[in-house]
């Protein structure tokens, strides 16, 4: 009888322990899925979004779905509650057209990367230093400025720059980040002249010897930041995630280093995972 009681007590203790062990998992399963929009072909967007998603999963316990699209649809998705947030708002200039259209339907959460810059870049061996200076060398540049994907804010600004600086011999060649940087690499290898849309942070500044062309009319703005935007419903849906996104920010130099690491062959998941392990204080400041 005594032996039976000991067995029963041990069984009850094991069951209780097992039940307690299941509680956090059950609790996590009850948390809402967070949907983050991003532009997968943009290195900064890809990395910051995966970084935020990893912290939300690991530290806050919410499942996360990543929704890839172009810039315009990304903004529309947040405004229409198809996604909860995005971390790719290039402001105050590049995405101005999207913000002015949708500002009443989104909540600005502040910068997650500061000190950004956009414009037109050329290899340093090209003896042109201003956007206006491109005008007399249309033939050398094959009459083109190589841009990125259709709908990107920097493409819109480049179309404005072509008009503002009277570059009638030029047109914007819509491309992609991968195709644009491939053309830049090939041109530099052959010492050819090329003009491309460019921005910081971006890995290509560490990879290629290039320079921004001066933009005295400030068509591309005077510098800015990459911001986080949330749908208003997120504050009620997940106060913890809302607070986290409000605090989330990464130094530009560290983001640039992550982008170069990924460019050199490390997967985004592996790079982000290693960064999180190496920066516990910063991560704690986001979720505390």
Automatic annotation (TrEMBL):
Pfam families (alphabetical): OpuAC
Occurrences of domain ABC-type glycine betaine transport system substrate-binding (ranges): 33-277
Gene Ontology terms: cellular component: ATP-binding cassette (ABC) transporter complex
Protein name: Glycine/betaine ABC transporter substrate-binding protein
A single GO molecular function term of this UniProt record: amine transmembrane transporter activity
Organism of derivation: Acidihalobacter ferrooxydans
Taxonomy, superkingdom: Bacteria
Keywords recorded for this protein, A-Z: Cell membrane, Membrane, Signal, Transport
UniProt signal peptide: 1-28
